[in-house]
Amino acid sequence: MSLDKEISRKSFLKIASLGGIGLCLGLFAADSKTHILTDEEIEAAIQSVELNAWVIIDTNGKITFVDHRAEMGQGSFHSVPQILAEELEVNLNDIHVIFGKGDKKYGNQVTGGSSTIRSNYKNFLKITATAREMLIAAAAVKWSADHSDCYAENGHVIHRPSGKKAHYGELVLAASKMPVPKDVKLKKRSDYKVIGKPSRRIDTKSKTNGSVTFGLDKKIPGMLYAAVERNPRLRGKVKSFDATEALKVPGVKKVFKIKMLVFKTYREGVAVVADNTYAALQGKKALKVVWDDTGFEHINTADIYKRQEENVRTKEGLSYKKQGDPDKILATAGKKIDVMYQTPYQSHYAMEPLNCIAHHQGDKVEIWGPIQAPDWVQDALSEELGLKRENVIVNMTFLGGGFGRKAFMDYPHEAAVISKEINAPVQVVWTREDDSTQGPYRPGITYRCEGVLINGKIEALKFRMSGQNNDHWREESAKTQANRSTSEGFLEPYFENIKNVSFAEVPFEIPIPSMWWRSVYASTNGFAYESFLDELSHEAGKDPLAFRREYLDERTHKLIDKLEEVSGWRKRKKNEGFGVAITECFASTVGHVVKVSKKPDGGVKIDKVWAVIDCGWYVNPDIIKAQVEGSVVMGLGAAAFHEITFKDGKTEQKNFYAYPMPRINDIPPIEVFVIDNDEDAGGVGEPGLPPLAPALTNAIFDLTGKRIRKLPFDLNKV
Q1: Matching SMART domains, A to Z (predicted)?
Q2: pTM, whole model, 2 decimals?
C-alpha cells in the first residue's frame, strides 16, 4: 500500500497559521486507498475537522481521529483508536475521537456486517505507522542524528544516544515536509503493547455520567418536535383526518399529512408538530384518522408459513449453489431425512427508539441523529428532495443500539419532509409502539432440509428456504436470482468435504417490510442448518462434535478442541443435556456449547453457555467477549422469548409487554474464549448470535429426546 502524494509545504504553513493543525493524514478515499489531503481538503479541514476520516496531529501534539462509522455499542469508538495508539506510539487516552459527517470521500460509511475493523485495520495500521516514521524523520533532521538512533514513545520522539526528546507537536510542521515513506515496516504481533490487550473503553465514562450525546439528546436552536401517526397496515393511505382535538393540546402548532419512502413504496401518515415532545405525542393520540387500506393484502402469520411450507414442498426454487448431484442421490436413496425448520419475524427493538433531527433550508438539508449509514441517507434524500448530494449534510450521534434498523432511510426522510413543510428544524421521535408496529423486520423463513447418510457419512444435502429477500429494495435481480445469503452461516469447509450439496431459494413476497437484523440470514440459516446436522449425527449414531469434525478443516478443529476443553464435553453425565452449533458469519467462526437440565417444576433450565470465537487478528478481547455475550442474550430472546406476528395486516406486538425481553435472571452464565492465530481479522459484533438457537435446541434434544424445529418456543413447556 503506497501513499498517493506528499503534502505541500504551503498547505501545512496555512494550517499552522489558521488552525493549529500540523499533520493531517487521510485514512480513506472512495477507492479505499490511503490518501493524503489536498490543499482544498486541508482548507476545508480548517473549517470543519469532520470533513473526512483523518488522523490529525496539531502543533500542541493533540491527536484527533475522525470516525467515519457509527458507534452503536459495538465498541469501534474504542477499538479503532486502540489500533492508532499502537503504531503511532501514543497513549490511547490522549486520542480525541469525533464523528465524521456523511461524505463520499470516505467510501463506504455503512456500519454493518461487522466490518469496521475487519475491512480497514490494515489501512489503519499502515497510515499511523507512516505518520510515526515521518515524525521520527523530522526529529532526526532536527538533531542531525541517524534515523535508526531515534524512536517514538508516548507521543514523543526520543534520541537514544543522548536522551533528547521532542513531542509530536514540536515536529509536525517539519514532518509534513518529509518524504512519505513507501514501505513502512509494521510491528510484529508479538511486539504489540496496546492491540490485543484488554482496556477500559474510552466512551464508558461519558455514557455513564450522562455527558454523551445520543440522538434523543441532540438539540439545535429553534427546534420543534414532531410525532407521526402512521398507518398500522404499513401500505395504506390517509383517507381523511380530523385534527380538531389535536390542535387543542397546549403546545401543538400544526397538523398535516405526509408521506415518506419505505423501500420502493411510500408510507403515509399525519404529522403533529409542537414545541415539545410530550405535546406532540399527546396531539398524536388525539388525532382521528380514517385509513384507505385497499389495494394490498391484509396478511396473517398463519398464511405466511402455510405458503412458505407449500413453496419448499412443491418448488425447486432458484438455485444458489450446487455441487455434485444431490437430487439423484435423494431420489434413489432407500432412506433419507426430510424435515422443515421455521424461524419467526423479529423486531430490532433497539433500546433507543428511532429519532431524527432535520433542518430543511431551501437548497440544502441538514440531518442529526443515530444513523448507521450516512452515505445512504445522502443518496436517498438527494433523490427524494431533489437536492445536490453535497447539500445533504448528515451528522452522526451515538446510537443506543441499531442492529441494522438504523441503516435505513425512512426516518431521516420523514424528518426532512416535516422540516420542509414547517420551514424550521424539527426532531421526530418514534414511540416504542411506532418502532414495533412499523418494521422493517427480520423476515420469518421456512426451510426444508433433506439429507442422505451412507455408512454413517453424509452423502448428500439439499436445502431450500422460502422467506422475504432483504435485497429486494436495492437490486432488481432479487426477484430472479437466488438470495445471495442462502448459505450464509454454513461453514465453508463443508463444501470441500461433502460432495453433493445444494442450496436454493423459493421466492416469497408479501406487503411486510423486511431488512437486516443482527447477523442477517445467519441468524435464521444457522438454526436450520446446524440443527439438521445434529439430526444427521444422531441418525449416524455419532457424537455431534466428532461428526462435524469429519467435515471441517484444521482451523475449525482447533475451535472444536477448545469447545471440548472448556465445556467438559467429553465428561458429560447422564441427566445433563449438551448441545453444540458452529456457524460462520462475516469472516468469523463461532461455536457454542449449551448445557441444560430439567427444572423440578417442569421445563428446562439453561445451566451455562460456552462460546469460542475465531475472529483472526483482533484488537480488544474484552470488547469481543462483551459482544459475544450480548449476542447470546439477543439470540436467546429470539429463540425462546419473542416474535412478531400479524393479524389482518397489523402487527400484534406493540411494546415489551407483548414482546418480552430476557430478564437478568433468565441469562445463564456465559464464558467466552477467543482463539489466537495469524489469520485476517473477522467481524465481532454479530457472529456470536447464530449458534445460540441451534446449540440450545440441540441440548434440549440431548436431554429430552424432543426435537424443536420451530422458533420461538417456551423453555417452561419443553
Answers
A1: Ald_Xan_dh_C
A2: 0.92
